[in-house]
């Protein structure tokens, strides 16, 4: 050792000086050694102990890529309008329906409010007449036979309801056609006014009424046959058969509910087929039947869930008005002003609930129709191609309405 002025000590390539040797470390088995080959005992191995063998073959790299290495997420589906152009889930259907209402609030909610008001007015008048009659009975029980007998009693109890159903038959049919046409354009991101939609739909109105009429026949015929059978049994059995008749009525109600739900699901896409595909009534119902085939329970569940949801919302909106109108009608017997206020409150509650019910049910049914075509006919490819072309042009044109024609489907039905 010098006094500090001599040459520096030699260093090894490892960075340790020659005067300060590196710390001892036992040699490791090479990862490149083949399994089963003889290993050389490491330095410092105790005498007589067998050398340790590596546990299986080793590689210098991980056997699989690290998580996320080389992963490319699938591109999102095109969404030029209210829905993504791919098969839809329940969330897509509900979200698309809400977007349909928000994208065209004047056309959708405005038309729905007019339709709901036309349906609600005769129903409200009938209920007010019935409430006035009930109030008269409460104030003077001796007036029951005179006031509620004959044709006046029938009109008081059933006239408003029957007239409301007749108006609903016409108005809701027209509304469904117009909303379906608005929906067909909104899928591509296009907006359309109520007047433009009516011009496109008015030629399909007879076919729409044909579908609704055939549905009414399918639903009413079993009820008529059962009533005739019930009257015949009641005439033959007399008082002793009342228990049997009650059981028959309960069984018929249960079976009829199943019957109604089955055919309502099977023909749920008849109206979109009439408006968007230009089919006739019978052909549209056959088209709906074919589209539902293979996915009946899914279509049934979504439609049933939608009906329950809109019924709850409509009930929450209309119940306060209906209760207030009922109280005015019962407590203010004989007062014209009270009767008018009662009718207005009942009509307002019914209108407020129905103006959300009509477009929501029509929107879900229309989007579910599009979903069934995507799944059964690869219709999403047609929609995506059209969307790309419209993005290139920068606007949604009326020719997009022709894409709904069944000739554009991969599997024509």
TrEMBL record:
Tell me the domain of life: Bacteria
| Transmembrane keyword on record | yes
Composition bias, kind Pro residues: at what positions?
A: 1-11, 57-76
Indicate the secretion signal residues. none
Q: Which InterPro entries match?
A: GlyceroP-diester-Pdiesterase_M
Q: Which Pfam families match?
A: GPDPase_memb
Indicate the segments forming the Glycerophosphoryl diester phosphodiesterase membrane domain, all copies: 249-360
Instruction: List the transmembrane segments.
Output: 108-130, 162-184, 205-235, 241-262, 295-317, 323-348
Renumbered to this chain, region (Disordered) spans 1-76
Ordered alphabetically, the record's keywords are:
Membrane, Transmembrane, Transmembrane helix
**Bias (Low complexity):** 38-56
List the protein's name.
Answer: Glycerophosphoryl diester phosphodiesterase membrane domain-containing protein
**What organism does the UniProt record list as the source?**
Nonomuraea cypriaca
Which lineage? Answer: Bacteria, Bacillati, Actinomycetota, Actinomycetes, Streptosporangiales
